[in-house]
Amino acid sequence: MRLDLDTYKEILDTITRNKSRSLLTGFGVFWGVFMLIALSGGGQGLREMLQNNFAGFATNASVIWAQPTTKAYRGFNKGREWSMDTKDIVRLRHQVPELDVISPMIFGGRRTTTRGTNTFSASTMGVTPDYARVAAPTLYYGRYINDIDMKQERKVCVIGKQIYKSLFPEGGDPCGKTIRVDSTYYRVVGVNYSSGHAVNFGGSAEETITMPESVLRKVYNRGTAVDLMAVTGKKGVVMSTIADRIRTTLARAHSISPEDTEGVTIFNTEIMYAMLESLFQGVNFLIWLVGIGTLVSGAIGVSNIMMVTVKERTGEIGIRRAIGATPKMILSQIIAESIVLTAVAGMSGILFGVGILQLVEMACTTDGMVMAHFQIDFWTAILSTIVVCALGALAGLAPAWRAMSIKPVDAMREN
After folding, report:
1. How many CB atoms lie within 10 A of CB 122?
2. Which of 12, 107, 164, 228 is disulfide-compatible with 202, CB 3.0–4.6 A?
3. Does an H or E element contain 155, and which?
4. Is 141 in contact with 174 (CB distance < 8 Å)?
5. How far apart are CA 384 and CA 346, in angstroms?
6. 320 near 51, Cβ under 8 Å?
7. Do the bridges between strand 61-66 and strand 225-226 make them parallel or antiparallel, or are there none, so unpaired?
8. pLDDT 10s digits, 25-71
């Protein structure tokens, strides 16, 4: 059957002959496609929101901290308190050459921060410039701590999002302005908009003042203590393969059992990312399972309605056969009607789903920054269209075969 303008007019006339039935039939396909698009885009947005919690944090990193020992060792009872110090940086650098970045971190606790009449209780953290290679900041204004700040012990700081909004309610670039932390004044050099909800050290990143490690150590008299150690491996190094050597190096230096995994705690981010990836592989599978299942049920509905339509048009089909219509032409006509019905309903579902996802994305925009993109990619839309058309063809196949099997004489008699 040749598909020309007259053919499409005939198909449209057939579909619109019973508008209510066509709408209800198409709604099954429409809802199936909408569910697939909405679940797929929603899953993508949810994944991005969760990934934003780990945004900028190196995938090949480990975080090391000291806890009370859980094993007796070299005459020391278990439960002994200990702490890392700056000498451990040198030890790790020499004994574990696979490490790339070794960044010590120290904390000054929550401090009253003031600017004019505005105050905020903020967490304080001292880091080295290399820490930006472990947890990359999202700088809204200014820069991060650099080597000159460390060497010259400059009283500068990078403030979190909530601190910026509380101390600078008027907005604008705060870089170059001063704030007071307890009794010490610091010049703001950057604003960090990282949320870091899932990876926080010493407090939420939005409520943390980051300053040079050398400055915080001196201001709060921390001596050579190190609260946390953030390390990354060189390219190609899997952190879990060198974790035992890191633990052994620190344990022996502080008379701790090398087998005391809790005394020297090492958290590998690769485990966290692997869990996240496994979670969303399962979520994606469920999304496609539910979406395809809903589409198939809609296609079955289309097939059933087309069977009813063919039965109602038995006389018409018989007349067509009697005046020379071949079985192939009848087959093409019924399948074309099914494809057009499912394609129109499916494309409507795609457009409606994309529109809803766009509204959700707009709701997740703060300060002009999109927190998550609730949209499907181009190839998902193309795949959905292909699936809809294929299901439309399959849905029309059984009714078309039934129409082909109608004999002109029987159809004329029934008519």
Report:
1. 27
2. 107
3. none
4. yes
5. 8
6. no
7. unpaired
8. 778 778 878 887 888 887 777 777 776 666 667 778 889 999 999 99
